[in-house]
């Protein structure tokens, strides 16, 4: 076993998020503009290259792999990649293989994901209202996602719902969404909207609903108990005593948790971003393609990249302006 990956701030890197495509069948207003230009296929890592890359990270101590995008399940033949990663679950080197999805393709793939060793899935869903869903995702349709969630639960997958907290959009659904999730035995995590990528005419500050305010609203109706649980992510959790479910808060703006960050992100073109909120990245595709038979060179490039992991991001809306903005779309780095 090689020495583990430790960054300059003594944080061990055990979590890799991999964006397997920048494409998506939705166009969520906070994530993409309607007329996105996507990368040419030749720039993408092939599924074999993704395998080699992820396997190298696993050899260097990565224990959790989250597949994301764009929409990971629209990448052709992506299930073969999941099946290939199962060998690392079987060997015990990988503790968890999971994905974040918009749910549109779950009805097709839920059973196969289970066969590949996936046990939990995050499904992003910001509203329970069909019209609002069509509006926020532009191209998405709620019944399709609902069918996906049902199929996933029937296949035995544990579902967590992720919702972006959006002022004037889903504030009025705080309790209905909580109760809908509780009735289906699902945890629910709220995310503060981050200033990533050009999204056309949408207004970031206008979208921003502070999770401190959201939490205070929840506490007016329910008894919230802080939980020590960490899932290797930036979310902090409470339990709602009345329903028993967990509610997560991802608060890059009101409170960042960079000090305990254990993750790095690989894009579909093989760039490694050491922080979601910074522009620094390392081109691992070159190391991979220039040395097809030498994982030592890839390992060297990975270690050099980890040595550059910054302390944290600089997202900040507190001066009534959007600071710390990064130009990449979330779908590029993978949310
Ligand atoms: N397509 C998949 C999905 O929607 O779950 C995976 C990729 S998506 C980029 C991952 C997560 O990022 C989603 O939960 C989405 O809501 C969130 N997201 C996208 N843009 C965001 C932004 N600007 N701020 C906060 N969260 C964002
Ligand atoms: Fe697609 Fe996910 Fe971005 Fe929505 S949030 S546009 S589903 S990548």
From TrEMBL:
Segments forming domain Radical SAM core: 8-235
EC number(s) from the headed UniProt entry: 4.1.99.22
Pathways involved: Cofactor biosynthesis; molybdopterin biosynthesis
Binding-site residues, S-adenosyl-L-methionine: 30, 70, 124, 194
Keywords (A to Z) from UniProt: 4Fe-4S, GTP-binding, Iron, Iron-sulfur, Lyase, Metal-binding, Molybdenum cofactor biosynthesis, Nucleotide-binding, S-adenosyl-L-methionine
Subunit structure as annotated in this protein's UniProt entry: Monomer and homodimer.
Protein name as it appears in the record: GTP 3',8-cyclase
Originating organism: Thalassococcus arenae
Chain's gene name: moaA
């Amino acid at each position: 076993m090689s020495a583990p990956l430790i960054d300059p701030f003594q944080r061990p890197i055990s979590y890799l998020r991999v964006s397997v495509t920048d494409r998506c069948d939705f166009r969520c207003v906070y994530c993409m503009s309607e007329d996105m230009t996507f990368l040419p296929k030749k720039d993408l890592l092939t599924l074999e290259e993704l395998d080699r890359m992820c396997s190298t990270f696993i050899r260097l101590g990565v224990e959790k792999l989250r597949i994301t995008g764009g929409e990971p399940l629209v990448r052709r033949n992506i299930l073969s990649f999941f099946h290939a990663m199962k060998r690392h679950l079987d060997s015990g080197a990988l503790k968890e293989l999971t994905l974040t999805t918009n749910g549109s393709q779950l009805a097709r793939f839920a059973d196969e994901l289970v066969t590949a060793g996936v046990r939990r899935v995050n499904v992003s869903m910001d509203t329970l209202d069909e019209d609002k869903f069509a509006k926020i995702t532009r191209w998405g349709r709620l019944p399709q996602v609902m069918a996906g969630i049902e199929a996933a639960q029937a296949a035995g997958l544990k579902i967590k719902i992720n919702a972006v907290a959006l002022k004037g959009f889903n504030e009025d659904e705080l309790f209905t969404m909580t109760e809908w999730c509780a009735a289906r035995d699902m945890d629910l995590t709220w995310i503060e909207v981050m200033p990533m990528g050009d999204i056309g005419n949408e207004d970031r500050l206008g979208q921003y609903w502070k999770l401190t305010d959201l939490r205070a609203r929840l506490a007016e109706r329910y008894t919230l108990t802080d939980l020590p649980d960490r899932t290797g992510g930036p979310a902090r959790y409470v339990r709602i005593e009345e329903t028993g479910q967990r509610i997560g808060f991802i608060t890059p703006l009101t409170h960042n948790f960079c000090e305990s960050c254990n993750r790095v992100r690989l894009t579909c073109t093989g760039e490694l971003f050491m922080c979601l909120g910074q522009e620094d990245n390392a081109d691992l595709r070159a190391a991979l393609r220039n040395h097809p038979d030498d994982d030592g060179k890839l390992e060297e490039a990975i270690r050099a990249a980890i040595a550059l992991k910054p302390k944290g991001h600089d997202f900040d809306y507190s001066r009534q302006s959007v600071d710390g903005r990064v130009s990449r779309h979330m779908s590029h780095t993978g949310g």
